[in-house]
Amino acid sequence: MRKLSLIIKREFFAKIRNKSFVIMTFLSPIIFVGMGFLIYFLNQENDQNAKKILFVDESTIFSEEDFKNTTSIQFTDFSGFGIEFAKEKVVQNDYFGVLYIPKSNKPKEIAKAVTFYTNDTPSFELTKVLERYVEKKLQNKTLESFGLDLQSMITSKIEANLKIVDFSGEETSRLLAGLKIGIGAVAGYLLMMFVIIYGTSVMRSVLEEKTSRIVEVIVSSVKPFQLMLGKIIGNAGAGLLQFTIWGFLLFFILSILSASLGVDMFEIQSSRFPQAPLEMANNIANPSEMQLLFKEIVRLPIFKLFMLFIFYFFGGFMLYSSFFASIGAAVDSETDTQQFVLPVILPLIVAVYIGFAIVIHQPNGLVSTIFSHIPFTAPVVMLMRVPFGVSWWEILISMLILLVSFIFMVWLAAKIYGVGILMYGKKTTYKDLYNWLKYNCF
Amino acid sequence: MDYLLEINNVVKTYQNYTALNGVSLKIPKGSVFGLLGPNGAGKTSLLRIINQITTPDSGTLYLDGEKLAAKHIGQIGYLPEERGLYTSMKIGEQALYLAQLKGLSKVEAKKRLHYWFDKFDIAPWWNKKIGELSKGMAQKVQFIVTVLHQPKLLIFDEPFSGFDPINVQTIAKEILQLRDKGATIIFSTHRMESVEEMCDEIALINKSNKILDGKLNDIKRQFKTNTFQVGLKTVEFLEVERYLKDNFDTFPANFKLVEDCLSLNIKLNKNQSANDLLQYLMSKGEVQHFVELIPSANEIFIKAVNND
Fold first, then answer.
1. Which of A125, A209, A340, B296 is least enclosed, having the fewest CB within 10 Å?
2. Farthest-apart Cα atoms in chain B, separation
3. Residue B235 belongs to a domain with what CATH number?
4. Radius of gyration over every alpha carbon of chain A, rounded to an integer in angstroms
């Protein structure tokens, strides 16, 4: 144990004293915020250059009031000048495009024939906005022709707000679904990032000992398995420290910027990840809903979530980084690692894909259930499922499978590691790795 | 005799290749034991088994009467042939780390390290990194780390590689001093002159088998051919030469003498004694040179390997 802790300490300090580690720790949050800022301001800049659009209405149904200017679109009525003149203006690049409403008194015909002439490719949003304006006016016109009073139509409009109650009788918030997806997605994504960044760091550390030829000196004092474990834990520690610092720095920088610039920086960050549920949340959020959500957050099994997060996070990291360690041991230089790294990372990428494509829609569907039990994908997939509620026996089975396969895989990886660290000058193949497993090394 | 390490019938195979084929050795306490053999003979495999880096397929090892186990790691110091130091760590720091891995407390390790660093004149390098050191200095640091925890058994695999002749002398002196203080030393090398100088006993491994072992002097005795180099200053030159060639196996001389002499290598058979030969020579002139040919470790090595 004393030796293991010595190795962990050395790995940890060797890692955090590394110049590039220090630089990345403090630079990354700044770069991250800077990128957010850049995107935000570029967006703003984009919005300020409002698109100038002409409209030519030959039906005489529309007026300027029907085309309300927004920050991104400005309408000008060119009905008096005729479509040909308006088109010319667009060709001369004075205007983005011209919306042409043909002469007719039948709204359905107009709806079919309405045209937008432009040299550019209008964005999806712009076409939607134009369509909505036209539809709204034509719909009102039709209702009027039926002799209905528009004002009473508006007042008669009723919005149903579905309350969701679980069987404990508590009212739950619909926003919670979004929150759960958020928690699951962040956890799964964090794990993937963590494994890739610090798993390769374990690999590099093994490779360094091998190329500097110190490894045989060390394994004459400690078991290769201890050395490998020490490396994995030491690197995980350094990684957690770096993640924590990133978290604090990000929070700190964003708080300062929010306070000094009066910009809600947290919103900038979240706007970078367009998420349907958030949009939904914005649409339906009202004070009572927010209160409900808050109550729900408090009621989430935070402790259980946290413990499971820790278990799957470490289980996943240990499983993967032991493979990275054995890759480092099997090869002689970093360039040779490529052929082995891809097959290791692949299941991780698959897990994240499945997580985002399937789990967030059907957290308890068949695919989600299967992949949350396969040890290579379980850490990511199960972490994404957990906030939605997974039965305890399912979690238990998944944890058990992960634990057993973790022990088996670490043993396997340690075997490759034990043989590999003492092999020099030969390019290792998959066949070699298989043969090494049969060696009687420790 | 008291043995520190007993190796009984050790077998180690890799895939289709046998690295050690039933090797047995006994290493006496307080001796320098030379483990010799051509490249790929199985020396490193054996050293790794002694250090418990790998385990044998079969066979047993005893250290000081006890079956070799994990607890003995602290009683062994190993300087492997493939050795190095961390490039990113300061010299003193990593020496401290390696010493602690061998079971020393930090305080004790520091004390001993300072003693050795002063002894080898490398104290100013404590805070340097390996890139700033010459190869010889790095080797000194590795030597220190190997012996620092005062193990009963010291294993040096090619300890002199990378050293200049002056440093070789320094290290050789230290190794012999460690032996005199009671350590047992296994010394694996290709440098036969250092074997002559340092080893009390040797074992020769070739193609996974031990082909020779014992006291260096006994082996030399076993390999000597009863051949004498003879130099005689005589006036009866031709007569004596003819007599010697008729009565003994003679070979042309391969040594040089200052005086103008009759010089020959003479091999005696079982019935002939050196004294009789010497008496005859003395009666015929002035004996300038009379030396028995003792094979060098190098000659024994080459002969044994070629005969195997």
1. A125
2. 78
3. 3.30.70
4. 30
Q: What is the ipTM of this complex?
A: 0.81
Residue B53 and residue A216: Cβ atoms within 8 Å?
Answer: yes
Rounded distance between C-alpha atoms, residue A291 and residue A264, angstroms: 21
- My answer on whether B201 and B261 are in the same domain is no
- A216 with B83: Cβ contact below 8 A: yes
CB nearest to B84's CB, from A14, A212, A223: A212
**Residue A303 structure tokens:** 């402790």
Interface residues on A facing B, Cβ-Cβ cutoff 8 A: 3, 6-7, 10, 14, 18, 208-209, 212-214, 216-224, 418, 422, 424, 435, 438-442
Q: What is the pLDDT along chain A (442 residues), one digit of tens a residue?
A: 788 999 999 999 999 988 888 998 888 888 888 888 888 888 777 666 778 888 888 888 888 888 888 777 888 888 888 888 888 888 887 788 899 988 888 888 888 888 998 888 888 888 888 888 888 888 888 888 888 877 887 788 887 777 666 665 555 555 667 777 777 788 888 888 888 888 999 999 888 888 888 888 888 888 888 888 899 999 989 988 998 898 888 888 888 877 776 555 555 444 444 444 444 444 444 556 666 666 666 666 777 778 888 888 888 888 898 889 888 888 888 888 888 888 888 998 898 888 888 887 788 888 888 898 888 888 888 888 887 778 888 888 998 998 898 888 878 888 888 888 877 766 777 777 777 776 655 4
Contact (CB, 8 A) for A265 and A36 = yes
Looking at the domain covering A50-149, what would its CATH class be? Answer: alpha beta
Count of structural domains, chain B: 2
In a domain, B190, yes or no: yes
Q: Nearest CA of chain B to the CA of A331: how many Å?
A: 16
Q: Do A213 and B14 touch (CB under 8 A)?
A: no
Q: How many CB atoms lie within 10 A of CB A435?
A: 14
